[in-house]
Amino acid sequence: MLKTICYISDSCQEESLNTLKNLFSKAKKNNLKFNITGILIYSNANFLQVLEGNETNVNDTFKRISLDTRHRNLFKVIDINTQQRIFEDYNFGFTIVDSSKELNELNEYLEWLRKADNKLANKVVNMVENFITQKIAKQ
């Protein structure tokens, strides 16, 4: 059975670009190993991540994340069994909202998802868009 978990959290410190790239590289490697797809967004010391894949693998990955001392105020927004992946074609993307190129690519993908008219996808798209909008407004 497939599962989707979406969470938001605060970073315990303002992350440097190199630290974020290393974090993403490690996350992508682990997620490929466990066939997990999704998206990871970082902005203004906050993370939003969507994990999707085999229920056991997603639960185990989220548990590791929840024990990671780099996160605080971790809040699970979505925890649902599902029939299909939302971000399968996005190749576990990573977006730093300050990068206009990455933001444009993400917005194009979100628009494509919105047209798919999938209730869970639309819920996640709205959450990602709200996260991005709120973070940009704070800058």
TrEMBL record:
InterPro entries: Acylphosphatase-like_dom_sf, BLUF_domain. Residues 2-93 form the BLUF domain. Pfam families: BLUF (PF04940). One of its GO terms (molecular function) is FAD binding. Transmembrane segments: none annotated. Gene3D superfamilies: 3.30.70.100. SMART domains: BLUF. This is BLUF domain-containing protein.
